[in-house]
Design brief:
2 domains; three-stranded parallel sheet; elongated
């Protein structure tokens, strides 16, 4: 590594000018890749919390990014898939309660400032550092890239740092598996601020506190919902589709007869009940039980069938998904208005990112045409 190239490390600011910038506002950045409709795993893991954060009044601004450029890093041969799913993801956002009056929804590729920031940040990160990122390692393995990793995919932690810092995000809601990405962003921020001056904000990760919100398995009990596996319940699914999927859900293979003791651990039906069930659901849908703990105890003892548990879960899911489905239908009937909303969000996002980019270029002293001091200095030099 050249001696002129700063190394990113989490403790490299000892004895140097401070790299910390005190944030003036509390800002959230979050988002999703538009590679398909969103499912109940997205709802439990992030969407439900985003709506709560939006309505909490705690944050000055919230930006939600439809990360189409990031989706193209492993879908470059199928841009139509990404193109079509931008609307699907936007519909899911609005149907879940994301309010464009409170939250800016924008499309990543429409903000060119993000790509310019990425190019500058690349000079602050070594290839070896990106290779050490455990999230990058696991994503590469999951997609089967081996040695044929697209450059855009390999460097997406740097692109993500650009997304976060462009909006001066102080808070980034993520799962535990994404923590290395946030740490890499923090390293880039520190490296930039030490090298050029205090400009960028260090983000903090916001991790789900409830275990049931961290990861919802597929209906087949597998760890991840996937369109290719057909094991997801989607927010746009009809009542009939949801009911059929719940009926097919993985339970306890040892619970063959009604009298058999059952296991709730690893049982997808009870995992979903942990995520969606509220105390008031028992009085409304299953009054013979007082709580979920009581239902679980009966299942463990034996004498409680899977069908009854699945019927209970289906009623709860329908209560949750019915208003989401209705709001989605309203927006589906007015797609031009949806595009107007996205265009307005992109305009607001570009203004925010443009302000950060100007500050970055000023700190790097590459704002040549705005630097009157540089022009005056060189004018004087060539006069003499």
């Amino acid at each position: 590594m050249s001696k002129d190239m700063p190394e990113c490390s989490s403790d490299a600011h000892d004895g140097e000018a401070t790299s910390f910038v005190e944030p003036q506002q509390k800002i959230i950045l979050t988002g999703d890749r538009p590679t398909g409709r969103l499912h109940v795993g997205h709802y439990v893991g992030s969407l439900r919390e985003r709506v709560a954060l939006q309505n909490s009044g705690t944050f000055d601004e919230i930006f939600i990014m439809i990360a189409d450029a990031q989706a193209l890093t492993d879908n470059a041969d199928n841009p139509e898939k990404v193109r079509q799913n931008i609307v699907e993801v936007a519909l899911d956002y609005l149907s879940c309660g994301i309010d464009p009056a409170k939250t800016t929804i924008f499309i990543q590729s429409q903000i060119p400032e993000l790509f310019e920031l990425t190019s500058y940040y690349m000079n602050l990160v070594t290839v070896a550092r990106v290779q050490r990122n455990p999230t990058v390692k696991s994503e590469i393995q999951m997609r089967g890239f081996a040695a044929d990793v697209p450059c855009g995919f390999f460097t997406y932690p740097i692109s993500q740092a650009s997304d976060i810092t462009a909006f001066k995000a102080t808070t980034v809601p993520v799962g535990v598996d994404q923590l290395p990405m946030i740490e890499q962003t923090r390293e880039i921020v520190r490296s930039f601020n030490r090298t050029y001056g205090p400009v960028l904000i260090e983000p903090e990760a916001l991790i789900p506190t409830e275990e049931s919100s961290k990861r919802l398995p597929g209906i087949d009990g597998k760890a991840k919902m996937s369109k290719s596996l057909g094991n997801g319940i989607y927010l746009a699914d009809s009542p009939e589709e949801v009911a059929a999927k719940v009926r097919s859900m993985y339970t306890d293979p040892a619970h063959v007869n009604l009298a058999d003791p059952g296991h709730v651990e690893g049982n997808a039906v009870f995992t979903y009940l942990d995520a969606f069930c509220k105390p008031e659901h028992f009085a409304e849908f299953l009054p013979e039980y007082a709580s979920l703990d009581e239902l679980k105890d009966h299942y463990r003892r034996g004498g409680l069938g899977d069908v009854k548990c699945k019927q209970f879960l289906n009623k709860i899911l329908e209560e949750t998904l019915s208003p989401i489905r209705a709001r989605r239908h309203e927006w589906e009937c007015n797609i031009p208005a949806l595009y107007d909303l996205l265009a307005a969000g992109c305009k607001r996002a570009q203004a925010a990112a443009g302000e950060t980019l100007s500050e970055v270029k000023r700190a790097m002293r590459i704002d040549y045409f705005a630097d009157e001091g540089l022009i005056a200095e060189q004018t004087q030099r060539y006069r003499s």
